[in-house]
Amino acid sequence: MKAHDGNPLTNFYQLGLDVLALCLFNGSYSATEVAEFFNHYKKNYYFGGQFSVDTGAMAVLALTCVNRSLTNEQIKADKNLKKIDELISFLVEKIMSEKKENGLIGNTFSTGVAMQALFVSSNYYNESEWDCQQTLDTILQEISQGVFNNPTAAAQILPPLMGRTYLDVEDCPYVSGLDTFNISNHVPESERSNSSSLIMVYYSVVINETYSINVTVPNGSVFLDVMKAARKKNETTFGFTMEQSSWGPYITSVQGLYANNNKRTYWELLSDGKALSQGVGSYVVHEEENLEIRWSTY
Ligand code: B12
Predict the structure, then answer these.
(1) Pick from 282, 221, 273: which is nearest to 251 by CA?
(2) How far apart, in whole angstroms, are the C-alpha atoms of residue 252 and residue 244?
(3) Which strand (E) or helix (H) includes residue 23?
(4) Which of 39, 135, 235, 267 is 20 to 30 Å from 145 by CA-CA measure?
(5) What are the pLDDT digits (tens) for 174-198?
(6) Binding-site residues for cyanocob(III)alamin, please?
(7) Handedness of CA 95, 101, 103, 106 (dihedral sign)
(8) Residue 248, phi then psi, degrees to nearest 5
(9) Could you give all domains of the chain from N- to C-terminal order, each with its CATH number?
(10) For a substitution probing ligand 1, which of 250, 252, 262, 290 has the most ligand atoms within 8 Å of its CB?
(11) What is the pLDDT of residues 234-248, one digit of tens each?
């Protein structure tokens, strides 16, 4: 991070995960350094100027774990450690400020980690500030509509539904059944719309210039189907590459221009000018929608 203007080559969400794992499983780390990193580089809680609820929430989980393992003597001896407390308080306030009218915190997919963070930090806010039941009701409604079919999305929302958080994870000496546990991203046919009818959508690649095309795809298609249809018509302008990740396919390049962590560049997905909260493999497109993939920085 020090060699890259304070930017981690992974991201702060992963730094949170790392510290959490070290803390839960008695790894060796320096609490003073944790306090320093999470405090000093506050810009990393933001992507493109927008506070990342997922990132802040993961930091709250990690910092709470570290905080709980400190003794009062340690805190007295090292004034940096007091900062952990201040930082949790700052992050909880930011997370609270991202609460929406329907109870979601940030967006649908950050709400699971945000709920976990609020469960472990109840000393930092008043009961009246968060209607947990409302959040739960909205989430349950979304689940019934299949929004959490993605296994990674499910893994982030499941603990709070059971009243648990990642802090409850314990080192299991023996885990049974995992070898036969089969995770599939397959969406049942019945959940896709009637694919015999066709819809037309607008699709653009935006770098400095905008390259646009109209494509026709079966009703119920996802963003990726649109990209493939455009590529079929013009490989040079609409050619792209992707990588599989835990969330599904992640777009790595368009027109040969590759996303780069060192430069904090990526391909952003938008519909009618608004950033999407799902990836190309999940987002179902609609008739006459303006889809866009834009060269962006975070
Ligand atoms: C960091 C991050 C990013 C970074 C990734 C680059 C980097 N250097 O880290 C940036 C800012 C570039 C990014 C981009 C996007 N992201 Co993002 N991202 C995250 C975040 C905060 C942490 C991911 C992580 O590091 N996990 C831990 C590591 C260990 O797991 P991992 O699987 O190896 O992580 C990799 C993948 O997750 C991948 N990745 C990141 N975002 C996304 C999104 C999708 C759809 C896919 C397939 C992969 C992917 O990059 C990670 C680092 O290599 C998560 C939050 C969360 N709750 O998980 C959101 C999150 C995964 N992202 C999300 C979204 C929607 C996107 C975008 C589609 C946004 C957009 N409108 O363009 C784009 C991806 C577009 C594309 N090119 O395909 C959603 C996914 C929801 C869903 N149901 O699909 C999440 C959950 C945030 C949210 N609450 O909305 N993201």
Answers:
(1) 282
(2) 10
(3) helix 12-24
(4) 267
(5) 555 555 555 555 554 445 555 579 9
(6) 10-14, 54, 107, 156, 250-251, 267-269, 276, 298
(7) negative
(8) 115, -160
(9) 2-180 (1.50.10.20), 198-297 (2.170.130.30)
(10) 250
(11) 999 999 999 999 999
The sheet carrying 290-297 orders its strands as 210-218, 198-206, 290-297, 265-271, 274-275
Tokens of 192: 């896709």
* Ligand 1: centre distance to CA 126 (Å): 31
| Long-range CB contact pairs, 13-18, < 8 A, 24+ | 13/52, 13/54, 13/55, 13/58, 15/44, 15/59, 15/62, 16/55, 16/58, 16/59, 16/61, 16/62, 17/58, 17/62
Sorted by sequence, the CB contacts under 8 Å of residue 237 that are 6+ apart come out as 205, 211, 213, 230, 255
Interatomic CA distance for residues 125 and 93, integer angstroms: 8
How many Å lie between the centroid of ligand 1 and the Cα of residue 73? 39
Residue carrying structure tokens 């100027």:
49
CA triple 223-227-232, angle to 5 deg:
145
